[in-house]
Design goal:
- The protein is 83% helix and 6% strand.
- The protein has 69 residues and is mainly α.
- It has one domain.
- The radius of gyration is 15 Å and the shape is rod-shaped.
Amino acid sequence: MQELLVWVGRLAGVAGVALCAVAVVARLVGAYWLGGFQVGTLLQIGVAGMVLGCLCLLAALTERSRARP
C-alpha cells in the first residue's frame, strides 16, 4: 500500500505541476481558453493534482513511521 501511495503521489504531483505550467504559459501568451477549458480551471485542476500528490506522500510517510518501532 505504501508503494502505491508513493507512486500515486508522484504521478499526481508531476501531472499537477505540468498542468499548472501549461496554464501559466497559455495565460502569458494571451489565451483564455485551451482545449475547451478556461485557463483558470486548468490551473485549479493542476493545484488539485499537486495537493493530491502531497496528501498521498504524507499518508505514505505516516504509514512508514507507524511501521517502525
